[in-house]
Design brief:
The complex is a heterodimer. By secondary structure, chain A is mostly beta strands. Chain A has eight helices and 28 strands. Chain A is globular. Chain B is mainly beta. In chain B, the strands form two sheets. Chain B has a 17-stranded mixed beta sheet that branches. In chain B, strands 3-4 form a two-stranded antiparallel sheet. Classes of the chains: A mainly beta, B mainly beta. The interface between A and B is large, with 81 and 65 residues.
Chain lengths: 594, 419
């Protein structure tokens, strides 16, 4: 498979270079376009250390083909019932050369500890599997029916709803591939396209509303949870795999599987019921067990709309989906199988009494935008969502200290579900800052996000006299985040390196972005600032600059600073300066497009 | 007395010298010859290499239906007390008889321009190229950005004369027109970008604008303040399309004069020919003398890019021939030039119009940054002769949408056409 991928990628790249097709190739109803890029990322955890962490070569090929126009196929054959049909294909081939070159330094995890591993420590077979991606990312057919205001998009696709930029609430149809570069690329690259049936019913006018439409989708089983990777993959989550812990020290490793295998004197290599961490829960990937649905109504208010101002665009949304775990919520990805009989049976089957979960969650949401031109010349955006039954790790649901599973009592928990209310208020304002740019405005975008967890229990230790992180007595009650550890899992003995990853009632985030155009659009800078005021004011500063050498050649520079204002780990789930501690990156990317 | 006569004779002689004749070619060497016939912007272009081939002027006839509607309805049209609205307007030209001494002459000219005969119902321009790049004036422009636009279309809701429903579509929201620029076909980083704009008859209501951004895969609301901002950093802004596309109510207008000036109404080359060498920021084509209203517009909008515009509006065709655009300090910043080709049929097209239609291309030159954007319709890479559709409604053909019909000018269409 890897060899086939390699050949396909090289063939596409060769065709691109050999063709020198700078102009857009169009052959009647066929359009071909795409790009090839090479991205280099250098990481610098401190002023003395730096190293290459990514050398990614990407080739994209896009095909747009007008199959049917005005109900006629190739202008010859009348097709009943269909007005237009268009085929869209998008291929992405990737070669990550770092899996061959294995450059870089030993990395630290989120606790600030050296993991003792380099990229070269990954088995050759694993690296071989990771270095190529060869995928038809999107492939769908657009159909417009002839006598109905109804159109369909059928096939593998991305669906994006909502108003937020680079943080997710209503944009939840496609889970993210966070192994690509954690969350440091555009969502367009990170979303996992899925096989979906999407329909759009164009209503236009409903009472005092105009531009009204209903959009709905059904994913008949092709759904995955968010994809996550572990260290030493350089752009993974900042921990080693908690199940397998590839460090393999002399004592046999500190991964959960390794600890359980030693403890129970039998090989334990799987999760409960064959679930796979961040890959597959206890369900079958078929329409009966894994369907996802969503619907939204969108409209613009007219002059006679009561209460609301004229020109306000809004959407009302509903989703029934599995929980993907990629929107910055500190939710549970797994649950302990606390029933002793079930747990014992699992161990006998070679399974850990721990299950990866992706439960269905109902969600209702609203988004709106409004351009206020008279006083502020600003577009205001709002998005909010209410989720029913989000899973959280609950420390009050743990193995008994006297049970055969006491070794897990302080690190794996059962799950309790709670509702969450999330939202964003934002603004977009084109602003003249003439001392910096006399020729074009700066587009300034601001966003304020909140997550509110309803009915969040207090945290406490087993010993009421002890205060969290409960290094002596162990966890007592309250919700725990994904980075909580009693120390048992990391050191083998309680009392050391214990951390509580608190699940907070409120999580907040501020984002501020500014961009403009210089030299007639030749130079396009972006400045992005993110502040998490809840978790020790961790921050991120991004400086991005696109330089169009020609219309077909783009040089992009990027500099990301992840700022942890403390000397201890900051457990935040937005993916800002806490999660990315020590990952300050400098990037250079060269793109050729046609 | 004798000295006075001598002065008059000398001035007459000089005036005669500062004139052009058919067959003349105006270049930077003899630009003084056309000094009185061109504005500062066009003069700047000539001084930087553009050539004006002078031809005899030809009439531009109004479409028959427009003429008849003007005769029928113009007498009843009145300006609203605040001058920002027309009362009793149905179709045709609202104020066909302009008295330059009328204190409302400037605003009436602008209303005539708003309801000009060029397009009354709808228009589609498709598959055209828009290169932009720095100017050296010695060597051809090397574009740093070049966009290929799939469709640019506009649908008017009132003053309609050709396509049912006439003269006004069902219009509960008071739309003047809807405009769609979608999709951008190339380059790849811009592929799929699309914009949707609503202009309202009521001057107190600002435009509504949405932009589909493929990078975020969704439709974003835009502020009207961005209408004067150069699109994606190149030189042309939305309000400069067609010479001026902003709302009349957004500026204070002043009639600077009525003059004979040069403009392009009958291009020799239907496929626009860029000037040679370092002057390829402009098209070198036929210019003819025209009666022109010179109108100054000073914006009322606080976030507007420009200090003022001077529009050169043809008194017969009611199109902007050129526009000089000044910065907030009063210095010439940009020059917009339209290059019309009034004709009944595009070469190679199977579509023959009842009247002469104004096929056009345009250039926008940033004189301060030495940068230009060239809008070529049809573009050099457009194989299809049918790149223009005037007042064709559902028969305006394009691979991206079924015609200039209402369902195309919607947010849902923008989502559907986008990828």
């Amino acid at each position: 498979m890897a060899r086939t991928s390699q050949r396909a990628f090289l063939l596409c790249a060769a065709l691109f270079w050999a063709g020198r097709v700078w102009a857009l190739p169009r052959y009647g109803p066929l359009e071909i376009s795409g790009n090839a890029s090479a991205q280099q990322l250098f990481r610098s955890p401190d002023v003395e250390t730096w190293g290459l962490v990514q050398q990614r070569n990407t080739f994209k090929l896009r095909v747009d083909y007008n199959l049917l126009e005005r109900g006629r196929l190739a202008d010859l054959l009348e097709i009943p019932g269909i007005e237009r049909a268009k085929l869209f294909l998008l291929y992405r081939g990737v070669y990550d050369s770092v899996y061959d070159l294995t450059p870089g330094f030993e990395q630290n995890d989120i606790y600030g500890l050296p993991i003792g591993l380099r990229l070269s420590d990954l088995p050759a077979r694993t690296r071989q599997g990771l270095r190529f991606e060869n995928r038809l990312r999107e492939a769908y057919l657009d159909l417009k029916l002839r006598h109905l205001p109804l159109s369909f998009r059928l096939g593998r696709q991305q669906i994006v709803w909502g108003e937020t930029d680079n943080f997710r609430m209503l944009d939840r149809v496609n889970p993210l591939d966070l192994s690509w570069h954690l969350q440091q690329e555009t969502w367009d690259e990170l979303r996992i396209p899925l096989w979906i049936i999407k329909g759009l019913w164009d209503i236009d006018r409903v009472g005092p509303l105009n531009n009204a439409f209903v959009e709905f989708y059904w994913n008949p089983g092709d759904w995955y949870p968010a994809k996550k990777a572990f260290l030493p993959r350089p752009w993974s989550a900042p921990i080693v795999n908690p199940l397998t812990d590839s460090r393999s020290p002399p004592d046999g490793g500190r991964g959960l599987f390794q600890i359980l295998s030693r403890f129970y004197q039998r090989p334990i290599t799987k999760l409960y019921r064959g679930t796979r961490l961040f890959q597959q829960g206890d369900y079958v990937r078929d329409p009966g067990d894994n369907s996802q649905v969503g619907v939204r109504f969108s409209a613009v208010t007219g002059s006679e709309t009561p209460i609301l101002p004229e020109g306000l665009q809004f959407t009302l949304n509903y989703f029934y989906q599995r929980w993907p775990g990629d929107d910055g919520t500190n939710a549970a990805s797994f649950r302990a199988v606390l029933d002793p009989r079930e747990a014992r049976a699992a161990v006998l089957r070679g399974e850990a009494p721990l299950e990866f979960i992706a439960p269905y969650v109902h969600a209702v949401g609203l988004s709106a935008n409004y351009a206020e031109e008279e006083y502020t010349q600003t577009v205001y955006r709002v998005e909010t969502i209410y989720e029913f039954g989000v899973p959280f790790l609950d420390a009050s649901k743990s193995f008994s200290l006297t049970s055969p599973f006491a070794i897990l009592a302080n690190d794996v928990y059962g799950v309790s579900k709670r509702d969450m209310w999330k939202g964003m208020i934002g603004f977009d304002r084109p602003t003249w800052i003439r001392p910096l740019n006399r020729k074009a405005t700066f587009l300034i975008l601001g966003q304020f996000f909140w997550h509110y967890l309803l009915d969040n229990p207090d945290i406490a230790c087993r010993d009421p006299q002890e205060r969290p992180p409960c290094a002596r007595s162990g966890q007592g009650k309250g919700f725990r985040g994904q980075f909580s550890t009693s120390g048992v899992a990391t050191t083998g003995s309680p009392g050391q390196l214990a951390y509580i990853d608190k699940v907070r009632d409120w999580e907040l985030l501020l984002t501020l972005t500014a961009t403009t155009f210089y030299k007639g659009g030749k130079i396009v800078p972006f400045v992005v600032y993110l502040l998490d005021p809840v978790n020790s004011y961790n921050q991120e500063v991004m400086l991005l600059l696109d330089y169009f050498i020609t219309n077909h050649a783009i040089l992009s520079f990027s500099q990301r600073f992840f700022i942890n204002t403390t000397d201890h780990p900051v457990f935040e789930s937005w993916g800002v300066g806490g999660l990315n501690r020590g990952r300050t990156e400098t990037g250079i990317k060269f793109t050729l497009q046609f | 007395m004798r000295a006075g006569i001598a002065t008059i004779v000398l001035c007459t002689a000089l005036t005669a010298l500062a004139d052009v004749e058919p067959g003349d070619v105006i270049t930077k060497e003899n630009v003084a010859k056309a000094a009185d016939l061109i504005g500062p912007g066009v003069r700047w272009c000539v001084e930087h290499g553009m050539k004006l081939h002078i031809v005899a002027p030809r009439r531009v006839e109004w479409p028959r239906r427009y003429r008849e509607a003007t005769e029928k309805y113009s007498a009843q049209v009145r300006l609203s007390p605040d001058r920002n609205r027309l009362e009793n307007y149905v179709a045709g030209m609202p104020f066909p008889n302009i008295d330059v001494n009328d204190p409302d002459a400037a605003i009436k000219i602008m209303w005539n321009y708003q309801y000009k005969p060029l397009i009354t119902d709808d228009v589609l321009m498709r598959d055209f190229q828009v290169p932009s790049g720095p100017l050296t004036y010695t060597a051809p422009m090397v574009p740093d950005r070049e966009f290929t636009i799939g469709d640019m279309r506009r649908l008017y809701y009132n003053g309609r004369l050709f396509v049912d429903p006439k003269p006004e579509m069902p219009n509960p929201d008071g739309i003047r027109y809807k405009e769609l620029l979608a999709p951008v076909v190339a380059p790849y980083d811009m592929k799929g970008v699309g914009g949707l704009y609503f202009r309202y008859i009521d001057a107190s209501r600002q435009d509504d604008s949405w932009l589909y951004v493929p990078a975020v895969r969704r439709v974003r609301r835009m502020s009207t303040a961005q209408r004067s901002d150069a699109l994606f950093g190149q030189d042309a802004d939305q309000d400069s399309f067609w010479g001026y596309s902003g709302h009349i109510a957004w500026s204070e207008w002043k009639l600077l004069g009525v003059k004979e000036m040069l403009g392009v109404l009958h291009r020799e080359h239907f496929r626009p020919q860029r000037c040679e060498g370092g002057a390829d920021f402009a098209f070198c084509d036929n210019w003819e003398k025209r009666k022109v209203y010179v109108i100054e517009g000073i914006t009322k909008l606080p976030q507007y890019a420009y200090g003022k515009r001077v529009l050169y509006i043809d008194a017969e065709a009611w199109v902007v021939l050129a526009s000089d655009i000044y910065d907030k300090r009063g210095e010439l910043w940009k020059v917009w030039i339209e290059y019309f080709s009034f004709r009944k049929q595009a070469p190679g097209s199977d579509l023959v119009y009842e009247d002469e239609m104004g096929f056009t291309s345009a250039t926008m030159i940033d004189t301060q940054m030495n940068h230009a954007t060239v809008i070529m319709i049809p573009g050099p890479a457009s194989p299809d002769p049918n790149t223009w559709y005037f007042n064709q409604g559902p028969n305006a053909r394009s691979p991206y949408a079924p015609g200039n019909i209402e369902e195309v000018f919607t947010i849902s269409h923008l989502i559907n056409v986008a990828h």
